[in-house]
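Q&A log
Question type: sequence-to-structure
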Amino acid sequence: MRFRHILICALIFGGLASTWAAAQKVERIGAPPASVPNVLRQAVGDAGYRVVLDGGWTAEFWFAKQLKTEKKDVPGALYPELTNGEFVGVVSLAQAMTDYRGQNLPAGTYTLRYEMLPQDGNHLGVAPNPDFLLTIPAANDAQPDENYAYKKMVALSAKSTGSNHPGVVAMESAGEAGGVAKQERETVFSVAVGGEKLGIVVKGTAGE
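Response status: OK
Response body:
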């Protein structure tokens, strides 16, 4: 009887794990649709990724053809080679999502720009590492080749949340490129972009 009980439990938990695995996936897709501004479509690769999570949440990503990188030492940073303000890619949200601060990002299309969290009294201890992507409504970001200064980028990103704060997407250590994995508190989409491997938190907020 005990063996039968263990077997039933294993089947139940195995079934739940399979259901969760089936509910999340990454698919390759084609170029951005015509609804994405032409200047942004020209700045990204010809193929993108569709990330599907449990509950049917879906996002489509297209990444820059090449990232601007430089070797530098930044204690605690996961991606010190990236440049503040640089264009990383475009994301199209089929449904709203919650950013790392718990703010609502409505369904729509946004650019993603890298920003290292300022090391000042307002930001110390708010995240395990200082690497973030800031969201900007695609219609408000027509210069993907330009590295925005911090204040300008924050002001543009705040348009994505309708608040005084930018839309912030956390970054994590990358796993297998082209995959999505549930970690302890977050779900991370990992992708290779121009020789750099990035981990993007697609589900998870500070303090969870």
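Response note: The chain has three helices and twelve strands.
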